Amino acid sequence: MPSPALAAFIRALPKAELHLHLEGSVTPKLARRLARRRGVVLPGVDLEDEAADLRDAFPFVDFSGFLRLYLAIASCLHEAEDFAEIVEDLGDRLAAQGVGYAEVTFTPALHRHRGLADAPMLEGLAEGRRRVLERHDLLLRWVLDVVRIFPEQAEPTLGFALALQARDPGAVVGLGLGGPEDRPHEVAPLRETFARARAEGLHSLPHAGELDGPVRIWEALRELGAERIGHGVRCLDDPALVEHLVREGIPLEVCPSSNVCLGVVPSLAEHPLPRLLDAGLRVSLGSDDPPLFQTDLQQEYERVADAFGWGPSRLRALAGASIEHAFMPAERARRMQAALAAVPAPPGHEGREAS
Fold first, then answer.
1. What does the pLDDT look like over 252-294, one tens digit per residue?
2. 186 secondary structure, DSSP code
3. What number is the average pLDDT over the span 321-341?
4. Contact 103, 18 (CB under 8 A)
5. Strands (DSSP E) along the chain, which ranges?
6. Minimal CA–CA distance to 74: which of 114, 19, 46?
7. Prediction pTM value
8. 124: Cβ–Cβ under 8 A, 6 or more apart, which residues?
9. Which of 127, 210, 219, 300 is catalytic?
10. With 60 as the cut, is the pLDDT of residue 234 above it?
11. Does 186 participate in catalysis according to the annotation?
């Protein structure tokens, strides 16, 4: 891992986190507390073993196992205070990593499907966001996620997004699209919902090109008007797609540890992140579901620095890209960019800087 000086430099960099799922951000300690509170069984998790490390605490071996655990954690959330608590806990951890702004994905359909009304979700998200802003001056905004294999969720999810925006003005940044893209599904039925979302001032921020190839990214662009792509690492399989993404300036939210854990790439050393940057693509780092993938945004920066020999210049550029690619208020972006430029580089840690 990087030297303590370089790790401290990374922590000091003002950063935006643009690819992060709220339900997947719950730590083992908090998940155990919520599960005991609500009488939920977490698959493979010992609710009494508080000493288990992340790998042992949240066990899964493939995407299906990941989904089972993810859904079980989501099922622990019942009351408004449950939602506020996980938002507040996430905010504390993000602030400690130098994050000044985050666009956090939330999937209301997960909770509606098990019979939960909208009211506790709306109240909890708004209250948690308020607490985090007040405590840390950390601005959280929501991306409301549609699960791609359930297109009937699209309109209700947009309705939830607009209700949350009405309750907490400025809270919602856009509509997302998640779920297993390697299963048969059609994106075209979502076209009108995403068009309506854009007409309401929301951004189109779908996942694509993670478990499946370039066709999913083309779908997101052509059918959903995608303005930023979650993951997108498989774009390199199609030179014409790479050229289009570069020409149109459409950023990718790249989550290296997630890609390794879910078998998208065999190892961090073989991750295409350097090739994405060398191709001229706009890239920021994200942590996806941090406790489930034994990471956080700080560690994502540290791991790529170690894997690719990157030093302060490249790491500062990645942090700057995260701010540039975010849909944050202009004044906050100016403040974060100014603070970023003012962070001194640690001497003797330049690494092998990429051109």
1. 999 999 999 999 999 999 999 999 999 999 999 999 999 888 8
2. -
3. 98
4. yes
5. 15-21, 99-106, 139-147, 172-178, 203-208, 229-231, 252-254, 283-285
6. 114
7. 0.92
8. 79, 80, 81, 82, 83, 84, 85, 87
9. 210
10. yes
11. no
Q: Which residue has the tokens 């951000």?
A: 25
Residue with tokens 């954690």: 73
Query: Would you call 328 helix, strand, or coil by DSSP?
Result: coil
- As a CATH number, domain 4-24+76-337 is 3.20.20.140
- Report the candidate in 175, 239, 237 with the shortest Cα–Cα distance to residue 207: 175
Residue in the block written with tokens 């309109």? 155
Rounded CA separation 247/137 (Å):
35
Which residue has tokens 């019942």? 78
117 phi, psi to nearest 5 deg:
-75, 165
Contact 126, 88 (CB under 8 A): no
Is-contact 193 155, C-beta < 8 A?
yes
From the list 244, 175, 181, 242, the residue with the least C-alpha distance to 210 is: 181
**Who's near 276: CB < 8 A, 6+ residues apart?**
233, 235, 236, 252, 254, 283
Q: Which two tokens stand for residue 296?
A: 């956080």
Length of the chain counted residue by residue: 355
